[in-house]
Write a structure and sequence with these properties.
This protein has 414 residues and is α/β, with parallel strands linked by helices. The protein has 15 helices and 15 strands. Helix content is 38%, strand content 19%. Helix 1 packs antiparallel against helix 5 and helix 8 packs antiparallel against helix 9. The relative contact order is 0.12. Among the domains are: 214 residues, BirA Bifunctional Protein, domain 2 (2-Layer Sandwich); 75 residues, no CATH class.
Length: 414
């Protein structure tokens, strides 16, 4: 039987041009976040299985890859009541749970207010489809230890600055507060926490099944009138800062905080959206997402999760995070090829002496930042086009009689 040579299902190899684009995006984001005062950390790719399944990850816990314990025996298999009984570790499904554990472990070594950057792969046993992978990179910034709105302001400023630096324009920030969502549910008679959680899971499907679908599901699970609920949801979909002010269901204090946040962020297109849920159950206050009119999906999101770190530390620590959708951003950004005009290619014939070729490359390295050697092919057009995509700016042809690059003509690739 033939052995497959493709990457595991839901995971990808990255060819040089794609890898170069990914590294360019990462470099831009890292540079912006560093300028905004965030420090990068690194955590293990695995965490204790019990921690990953402690109720902090919501539905993502169901998608966690488990790592089987070493030294398992057939008797262990017989005695196990559930698959997780055989696992002691698991691959991280996000970066927030590891951050909470990291902060609890190292709090004494960290500043009172800690601004963290994490950019790393995570794993989820998703059903693979376009734009959804089992291994993907998350790009998170978090502020821990700051209870006031300064944390949200810093996060939104840094995130919008990163998007601007990547050349992604026209974005807006949808914003809401979990307290406003809970007040809305209370106006529908939903006050019991478990019922509220079920209702929010349903409302979070609004962009997929529409107002009627959400209303019907709420009617089935929570005995709400589908017609009246659908009318309310349609009105909420078109709501804005002005139309909801003074509404009898609104949590006035939470809304006032959002308005203060809006006033503190001039130049940022901050849009109030009372239907924004964010699926993770650990959010406690402000929640937000990056929207763009040309895309039917968000480019990032996050919120305040003041209760999570206390699960590890035994003492609550205020925390807010914002995650950019790195895999989606990569598809929207092109390498600035012409900006790397100092990256050159030396195209050589097969009869060029390798010692002489190495000397020519060394000469080019003395004058340029990046040098590539490429053997002449029959289809030079495709070769040069691919090199241009990788950011090389010019090329020169060298032969057996080329003693030096002095006087050799370099031609632009693009």
């Amino acid at each position: 039987m033939a052995t497959t040579v493709t990457a595991p299902r839901g995971m990808r190899d990255h060819l040089p041009a794609d890898k170069a684009r990914r590294e360019h995006v990462l470099g831009v984001i890292r540079g912006v976040y560093a300028r905004h005062g965030f420090d990068e950390i690194e955590t293990p790719v695995v965490e204790d299985a019990a921690r990953l399944h402690s109720g902090l990850g919501g539905d993502n816990e169901k998608l966690a890859f488990a790592v089987m314990r070493r030294g398992l025996t057939t008797e262990d298999l017989r005695q196990a009541e559930a698959p997780l009984d055989l696992a002691d570790l698991g691959l991280r499904f996000d970066l927030t749970v590891p951050l909470a554990r990291f902060y609890a472990s190292h709090r004494a070594e960290l500043p009172t207010v800690f601004r963290a950057v994490q950019i790393a792969p995570v794993w989820r046993a998703e059903r693979p489809q376009k734009g959804r992978y089992r291994q993907f990179v998350q790009c998170d910034i978090d502020v821990l230890g700051e209870p006031g709105q300064l944390a949200e302001i810093e996060l939104i400023r840094a995130t919008t600055a990163a998007l601007d630096a990547l050349g992604i324009v026209g974005t807006s920030i949808r914003i809401n507060d979990r307290r406003i969502l809970l007040a809305l549910l209370a106006s529908w008679g939903i006050t019991e926490p478990a019922a509220a959680d079920r209702a929010l899971i349903t409302v979070d499907k609004l962009d997929k099944i529409g107002a009627v679908g959400v209303a019907e599901e709420l009617g089935q699970t929570l005995d709400l009138d589908p017609g009246a609920t659908a009318d309310t949801i349609r009105a909420l979909e078109s709501a804005d800062w002005e139309s909801v002010r003074g509404a009898d269901w609104l949590d006035a204090d939470a809304f006032a905080e959002l308005e203060r946040l809006r006033a503190a962020l001039p130049g940022v297109d901050l849009r109030f959206d009372p239907t924004l849920v964010r699926g993770m159950g650990y959010y406690t206050g402000t929640i937000f997402e990056v929207a763009h009119p040309d895309f039917g999906y968000s480019l990032g999101g996050g919120g305040r999760y003041d209760g999570m770190i206390g699960r590890f530390l035994g003492q609550d620590v205020p925390a807010v995070g914002f995650s950019l959708g790195f895999e989606r951003l990569v598809d929207l950004v092109s390498l600035p090829g012409s900006a790397e005009s100092d990256a050159v290619v030396l195209v050589y014939d097969k009869d060029v002496d390798p010692v002489r070729l190495a000397a020519l490359k060394a000469e080019a390295l003395d004058a340029h930042h990046r040098v590539r050697l490429e053997k002449r092919t029959k289809n030079m057009k495709n070769l040069l086009a691919g090199l241009a995509e990788q950011g090389f700016g010019s090329f020169a042809t060298v032969g057996a009689d080329t003693a030096s690059l002095e006087g050799v003509a370099f031609r632009p690739l693009a």
